[in-house]
């Protein structure tokens, strides 16, 4: 770290770190005691970003805090897997390949119901559904 660093404020002649204040307390505690404890109220993604910025690694986290932090990685991987499995891509070329008439019809109905902006009919159907929903909630 020096005056050529992007955190150096030339006018004030001081370093300025615009970092997450809660995680910064953890980092300061680490530099004072050489023990990195994490707060369970912070997202693991935020902690990871701060560790990278301050030149620390996940290996610096104390064993008593590792369980909470490691759950973030497990959850992130699980969510990514779920996203890959359940995200439907509306790639027209993929849908048009080797589709029977029924599957093409099924795809069009799916788009009609899920993407109201796809056609005028879908917009009308969506609007009618909204009006009926509002009307049914106001009656009673």
Automatic annotation (TrEMBL):
<feature type="domain" description="Potassium channel tetramerisation-type BTB">
    <location>
        <begin position="7"/>
        <end position="64"/>
    </location>
</feature>
<keyword id="KW-0812">Transmembrane</keyword>
<dbReference type="InterPro" id="IPR011333">
    <property type="entry name" value="SKP1/BTB/POZ_sf"/>
</dbReference>
<keyword id="KW-0472">Membrane</keyword>
<keyword id="KW-0813">Transport</keyword>
<keyword id="KW-1133">Transmembrane helix</keyword>
<dbReference type="InterPro" id="IPR028325">
    <property type="entry name" value="VG_K_chnl"/>
</dbReference>
<protein>
    <recommendedName>
        <fullName>Potassium channel tetramerisation-type BTB domain-containing protein</fullName>
    </recommendedName>
</protein>
<keyword id="KW-0407">Ion channel</keyword>
<dbReference type="Pfam" id="PF02214">
    <property type="entry name" value="BTB_2"/>
</dbReference>
<dbReference type="GO" id="GO:0051260">
    <property type="term" value="P:protein homooligomerization"/>
</dbReference>
<dbReference type="InterPro" id="IPR003974">
    <property type="entry name" value="K_chnl_volt-dep_Kv3"/>
</dbReference>
<dbReference type="GO" id="GO:0008076">
    <property type="term" value="C:voltage-gated potassium channel complex"/>
</dbReference>
<dbReference type="InterPro" id="IPR003131">
    <property type="entry name" value="T1-type_BTB"/>
</dbReference>
<dbReference type="GO" id="GO:0001508">
    <property type="term" value="P:action potential"/>
</dbReference>
<keyword id="KW-0406">Ion transport</keyword>
<dbReference type="GO" id="GO:0005251">
    <property type="term" value="F:delayed rectifier potassium channel activity"/>
</dbReference>
